[in-house]
UniProtKB/TrEMBL annotation, chains A, B:
Organism of this sequence: Chitinophaga agrisoli
GO terms, molecular function: RNA binding; RNA methyltransferase activity
Key word Nucleotidyltransferase present: no
GO terms under biological process: methylation; RNA processing
Domain of life assignment: Bacteria
Protein name: RNA methyltransferase
Family: Belongs to the class IV-like SAM-binding methyltransferase superfamily. RNA methyltransferase TrmH family.
InterPro entries the UniProt entry points to: Alpha/beta_knot_MTases (IPR029028), MRM3-like_sub_bind (IPR053888), Ribosomal_eL30-like_sf (IPR029064), rRNA_Methyltransferase (IPR051259), SpoU_MeTrfase (IPR001537), tRNA_m1G_MTases_N (IPR029026)
Transmembrane segments: none
C-alpha cells in the first residue's frame, strides 16, 4: 500500500521544481508504461488490478520491479492528466549531460519550445528517425512534464535530452546546421544529410536572430496555400522527412 | 451589452449538439480572430477593450460587424478554453456539401481522427499545402470543436471540411489514392503528385481494412529509429511534404 508520504511525493512530481530536486519523473498511460517497462528503466509501477492482470506476462519478466496495485480513485489522485490512465510509472531522470559529438549522426536543437505537447511530439519524431540527441535551450518547456511524457508515447526512453545553450553547442559541434525559418532555401533543394544539426524555434517567434547568425543554412518548407505558418512539431517532422530521407 | 440569453447561446456552442442545431461556431484567440476577420466571414466579435483598441484599424474596415466589448471575467465565462483569450468570434458553419471533383487538386481523407488538436493541426497543414478539401468520415471529431478551431490557427476559413463516408468518396472520385500505413511502399519512391487522395487513419488503429481495400497505394514513412508510430498530424505533414513537393 502507498503511504501518505509516497502519494504526496508522486503528486509533487507534477511540478518541475520537485522533479529537478528529486531527479525523478512519472509517466502515465497503458502503452507508454508498457514500452518503458520493456526498456527496463522503470523503478515503480502504480496500476489498477485489471491492468496488472492484463500485463502479467510482461510483469513476470521484471521480478525486481516494485509494483503497487491501486484502486482507480487513488490513481486518479496520483494522475497529472485530466483523463487518468490505468497505469503509472516512476523513473529516474537521466543524469544531466553535455552534448556529445555527432559522429555521423543528426541532432535536433530546439530554441524556446513552449508547448509540452509539441515537445513530446518532437521527441517521438526524433525517435522515429533515429536521432539520438535533442539539445534544448534552457527556456524550453521541461521534457519531463507529464504532458510531454504522454506525447512522447514512450520515446523519452530512447532519445537523450540535453539542456544547453544553443550557440555554444553550434560552435563546438562544428558541423553544418539547418535552421527552420519562413524565408530560407527550399528544403527540396537539399540532398539527404547524414550528419548535421536541424534547428526548430519557438511556436510564435521562430528562431532568434542570434541563433540564426550561427547557422549554416536557413531552410523553408515551401508554402503552396494560405496558412501563415505550421505547427512547430509538424514542421520538425516535415523537415526530418526531407533532410534525413532525401 | 450581451443579454443572458446570448451568453447562454455562446456557451452552448461549446457542444457539438448545439453547433449542429444552430449551424454556428465560435473561434477564440487574438491571431485567429484577426485572421478570420480579414477573411470577412465573422458575424460577431466579443473582445476586451484593449484588444478592440489594438485592432481599431482592422475593425474600422468592417462597419457592419457586430462588436461587443466585454470585461475579461465575462470573456472567461464565454470561453471554452482553459486559458481564455482576449477575443472571440461567432461564425456560421458553411452549409454541408458533397465532395467536389478533384480537377487537378489533392484531397485529404481522414478516417476516425479522434483528437481535436490533431484535427485542427491537419486542417492547418492542408491550408499550408494548398489542399482545398478535407473529407472526414462521420466518426471523426467535429471540425468546429473549440480546440480544433484553435489548432487550425485561422486555416478553418480556407479549407473546405466535408463529412462523407470514405469508401463512396474514393469510388466516386476515381483517382489514385495513397493510404498512410505502417507497412506500405516507401514514400520516397513516389514522384510529386498533382491530383489524388491522401488518406490518414485513426490515432491508434490507423485506417480500417475496408478502406485500405479501396486504396490504390499503401504508403509508409521509412522508420530509422525505435518509435512504434508517429502522431497522426505529423504523419499527415510528412506525407504532404513528400507527395506534394516531390
Amino acid at each position: 500500500m502507498l503511504s501518505k508520504a509516497q502519494i504526496k511525493y508522486i503528486q509533487a512530481l507534477q511540478h518541475k521544481k520537485y522533479r529537478q530536486k528529486s531527479r525523478q519523473f512519472t509517466a502515465e498511460g497503458d502503452k507508454i508504461v508498457q514500452e518503458l517497462l520493456r526498456d527496463g528503466r522503470v523503478l515503480e509501477v502504480y496500476a489498477t488490478a485489471d491492468w496488472v492482470e492484463e500485463q502479467q506476462v510482461l510483469l513476470a519478466q521484471l521480478p525486481s520491479l516494485r509494483l503497487e496495485v491501486v484502486e482507480p480513485p487513488l490513481l486518479k489522485q496520483l494522475s497529472a492528466l485530466t483523463t487518468p490512465n490505468r497505469a503509472m510509472a516512476l523513473l529516474d531522470i537521466p543524469p544531466a549531460a553535455a552534448p556529445g559529438p555527432l559522429n555521423g549522426t543528426i541532432a535536433l536543437a530546439l530554441e524556446t519550445i513552449q508547448d509540452p505537447g509539441n515537445m513530446g511530439t518532437i521527441i517521438r519524431i526524433a525517435d522515429w528517425f533515429g536521432i539520438p540527441q535533442i539539445i534544448c535551450s534552457p527556456d524550453c518547456v521541461d521534457a519531463y512534464n507529464p504532458k510531454t511524457i504522454q506525447a512522447t508515447m514512450g520515446s523519452i526512453a530512447r532519445v537523450q535530452i540535453i539542456e544547453s545553450d544553443i550557440i555554444p553547442f553550434l560552435q563546438q559541434a562544428n558541423v553544418a546546421s539547418y535552421a527552420a525559418t519562413l524565408h530560407g532555401r527550399d528544403i527540396t533543394e537539399f540532398d539527404a544529410i547524414k550528419e548535421g544539426i536541424l534547428l526548430i524555434g519557438n511556436e510564435s517567434r521562430g528562431l532568434s536572430d542570434a541563433v540564426l547568425e550561427h547557422c549554416t543554412y536557413r531552410i523553408t518548407i515551401p508554402r503552396l496555400g494560405g496558412a501563415e505558418s505550421l505547427n512547430a512539431a509538424v514542421a520538425a517532422g516535415i523537415i526530418c522527412g526531407r533532410m534525413l530521407l532525401g
